Amino acid sequence: GExxxxxxxEGCDRRFANSSDRKKHMHVxxxxxxxxxxxxxxxxxxxxxxxxxxxxxxxxxxxxxPPVPGAPSGRRAAGP
Length: 80
Known about the structure:
The chain is an alpha+beta fold. The chain has helices at residues 19-25, 47-54; strands spanning 5-6, 15-16, 35-36, 43-44. The chain has a domain at 5-55: Double Stranded RNA Binding Domain (2-Layer Sandwich). The model is unreliable at 73-77 (pLDDT under 50).
């Protein structure tokens, strides 16, 4: 399909079908990581990266799912 929206970062040739996708892409070129995990101190440039992170077992997260309400910090939550 047509991709009329080019990345405005010098040296980047990426093009996008719409301006919102271009805006999301711009986080790649900055240190801006607006998508924060509520269970740890990690942050991500894209919401899909945060969703992938949340599927990995860790403190306060059940395997393959969202955070476990009331799970103690620093301990792995029991699976479903």
